[in-house]
Amino acid sequence: MSVKIRLSRIGKKKVPFYRIIVVDSRKKRDGACIADCGTYDALKSKLITYDEELINKWLALGAEPTETVERLMRLYRTVGIGVSEPPKTKKATKKTTPKAEKTAKEKPVEPAVEKPAEVSAEAKAEEPAEKPAA
Description:
Radius of gyration: 35 Å
CATH architecture of the domain at 3-79: 2-Layer Sandwich
Structural class: alpha+beta
CATH class of the domain at 3-79: Alpha Beta
Low-confidence stretches: 81-87
Mean pLDDT: 76
Strand content: 15-25%
Order of helices and strands: EEEEHEHHH
Strand order of the largest sheet: 4-3-2-1-5
């Protein structure tokens, strides 16, 4: 029997709230659990309760934590209960929207304008002089 420490969702629609549970890996996400080890509020990125002794007991018995629970355990050990700051993540890079790309494509590209060559003195002499305005 493979035992996992994972999250079970108990929150309402669009209000995620999770329990940290010990469960057989073949069971459903919200199915029957073996032990309840804590709770996690995903909106506030805050551990509400955390039973470290119980989790350590199950880890010693061979339970494997999921990546998310492992991250929460590291966060708890470094900061403690009541994490008020969300975990640090990579900064979002500026992304171009499809509208911005469309307008960039629609802008006409001006052709390179060549400068007219210097007019020689002979060509200037052949041009008729401007008539004075009367």
